[in-house]
Amino acid sequence: MSKKIGVALIVHGFDASSRLLVERLVRDYDSIVIHVDTSAAPQVLESYQAFASPNVLVINTRHVEWGRWGIVAATLDAIAASLDRTPDLDYIAVISGSCYPIQSASALRDYLADHPFDYIEAFDIFSHRWVLDGPQAERLYWWYPFDFWKHRRLFDVAYAIQNKLKIRRRRPSGYEYAIGSQWCLMRAETWRRVIDKLTNDRLLVRFMKNVWIPDETAIQTVVRTIVPEREIVQTSPALYHYNCYGRPVQFFAEHAELLTQQGFFFARKLATSDVALRKELDRLTENAPLPRDFQLGKRTGALSRMGRPTDKKRQFPKLNNHFRTGQAPSRVRTYYVVFCSKEVTEAECEQWCRRNLKGASYVGPLFAYSEIGAPEWFCQMLDITPNDFKVRDAFPHDFLTLIVDHAPSEPALVIPQDTKAGLVDRIVADTNARKIILFRETKIEDGYLPWIAGKLSRGQGGYELHQLQAPDVAALKPDNDSLPVAQGDCGSLRLNPI
Fold first, then answer.
1. Which end of the chain has fewer CB within 10 Å, C or N?
2. Same structural domain for residues 341 and 462?
3. What separation in angstroms does the CA of 13 have from each of 16, 57, 323, 484, 487?
4. What is the pLDDT of residues 165-174, one digit of tens each?
């Protein structure tokens, strides 16, 4: 028997991609309730209300903020409206405006007819590590009176004080506390019981309102408590994917066919501006059956090598950062630092490094105004473009630490003359670095030579001074991955520290 499926859509804005999403849902599903954030502009609400369809209802009841109770309340309002409006629904899915179907609705109905379970991540918050980087069980332990984005300093201070004092909130008894994604697909009867608990149990509601990111805890805790474990499939119907640094991956038009091969019915974090991706997904999935090897929750191997991070300013991991703290690096290794004056060209510098620093991984020039200087292996590791200045400049110390720790061999970092003085000081202070000054003329413009030599002489470990003499730049042409020796004498003059 075909299942009747409703969709609760939680949105903040409206654009061409939003129009395509609602049109697709109207065509394929039995009931659509759209909750529009009360802080959205009036034209956003009007745009959704303009959809003249009997199976669409638009509500506007809650202000939705990340990490606060509003998103839970908005979800429950949308689900309750769905059940009141269409009482005979069998399932209701919860998705956001950044989601999109990657399988046909007919395939989803057939699958649910054969697998009548609740599909939600509801892992034990104390024993199952779900959060990649950040607090998990601590979300329940302490109070979170300050907004993470608006009052970050106060948030961190309150967190640190409660942690130091080992404060623990008293949790309502009788519940199995859980964590997981809020994007789920559950039976209508389960939703009725969830709404009942999160409406009538005032103690639980009061507790959850002071939990950090309650949308990943409140509904999951109730489901894990009231639904037998054998009736819960611990996976979200919506594909979400993170890179190795815990940042969400965004999908683009070139990923359409790969998305349809994943073991999910929806996908999250589609590029907002990529209308072509949504149209291609419509074409690929129209009345299409599930892939032959479909397994719910299964990601194909290629997925780990695709996508671009959506928030490049916050994608670095938390490191034992020796450039920032002066402590030992996260993986102790020595490396070269070549301070290069502006009279030495990039080709000359690379030629000298390849000739004199045998086996070193050439990296640079780093922190120049014109280019990021990151090698290809580094860009692939972070899934970034070769000249993404935002990644380099947001956290330069983390940028350096990652290169030093993950270079395939002992790295040779080329630091150009226009690098900021504060960053140079951090590099000079690192005792793991073998420091080299590379120059051509003895009278360096702007006094760079005595300036950098003075900094290095005050550091530890000394430095080496190398002067290039009459290089033939025309001979510096790459042959495969190696460079020939330049015509002329690239002589070296080693001096004691000044």
1. N
2. yes
3. 10, 16, 41, 57, 62
4. 988 999 999 9
